[in-house]
Amino acid sequence: MPRVRAALADAERRLAAIPGSPGQDAALLMAHALGVSVADLKLRYLDEVAPAAFEPLLQRRLGREPIAYITGRAGFWTIELTVGPGVLIPRADSEALIEAAVEHFGESGPKTIIDLGTGPGSLLLAALAQWPEAHGLGIDSSEKARDYFETNVLDLDLEDRARFKFDDWAVDTHGAFDLVLCNPPYIEDAARLDPDVAEWEPHTALFAGADGLDAYRVLAPQISRLVAPGGVACIEHGAGQGPAVAALFDGGPFTISSRKDLMGIDRCLVLRR
Questions:
Q1: Are the C-beta atoms of residues 223 and 180 closer than 8 Å to each other?
Q2: Distances 52 to 1, 73, 134, 164 between C-alpha atoms, Å
Q3: Which one of 118, 137, 248, 255 has the largest count of C-beta atoms within 10 Å of its C-beta?
Q4: 214-242, pLDDT tens digit by residue?
């Protein structure tokens, strides 16, 4: 049987045939197969015999299945989440929403938070981890989202501060919240996506009509009534969509600005009331 070091080198060579980070992917899969962290893998396991479980995991990645679905885990902000087929994998781009909220509230934080289209709870649970005194509501219409959300709530010991509600956005949800978070679908129906995304992640969380703005047209009047005085809504949008999304909120009760993601791309519409 090959040693871990040799198996990783071979896996990196094979993974180079598909887009991504072959060395990082190989290390994540090997660490998952061994049940250890990547740091421990590199410090303690490189000269151990490679586990038999590694090759099936590698085959899944070569079939373009996302790493997060294979390992069942994804990091976001300061937390780690359980994820899998049926829910959107959180991206670092979306951390721009939490950054905008931190800029608005500072250390004191919001008291009440709502996350529209919460999926596995990425935005809401990251915000609750950021502000230990806050309570939040995650909204989604998917049963799979509810299942992952509840798993993550338990894993993060947030069951006293986070709850889930089925709704079509906020059609049947009322009240005023200090912080409204939302990462809706915003990709044009005709857009061509990488197979890792298009063939695996839920299309209902990705596509939103011919121009990618259908969800915002539904959300604009709902969000306008959900933000409490002094509160803020942080809404993700695609590259180049900022002006069109902002126009849907124009004339409402908000002062509108934007925030860039880690790549310097406008990613978050910030609506202050």
A1: yes
A2: 9, 21, 45, 39
A3: 118
A4: 999 999 999 999 999 999 999 999 999 99
Specify whether 112 is located in the same domain as 12.
no
pTM of the model: 0.94
Question: Could you tell me the two tokens for 62?
Answer: 């070569």
- Which H or E run contains 166? strand 162-166
Q: Is the dihedral of CA 151, 157, 158, 160 positive or negative?
A: positive
Q: Decide: residue 59, CB within 10 A, 0-12 exposed, 13-18 middle, 19+ buried.
A: exposed
* One domain for residues 184 and 50: no
- Report yes or no: 134 and 110 within 8 Å, Cβ to Cβ: yes
14 with 142, same domain: the answer is no
Rounded Cα–Cα distance for residues 207 and 187 (Å): 5
Which H/E stretch holds residue 116? strand 112-116
Q: What are the beta bridge partners of residue 112? A: 135
Tell how far CA 158 is from the center of its chain: 18
Same domain, 109 and 200: yes
Indicate if 134 and 266 belong to the same structural domain: yes
Asked whether 102 and 110 are in contact (CB, 8 A), the reply is no
Residue 233 structural domain:
77-272
**Residue 120 maps to a domain:** yes
Within this chain, do residues 25 and 108 fall inside the same structural domain, yes or no?
A: no
Residue 69 domain-assigned (yes or no): no
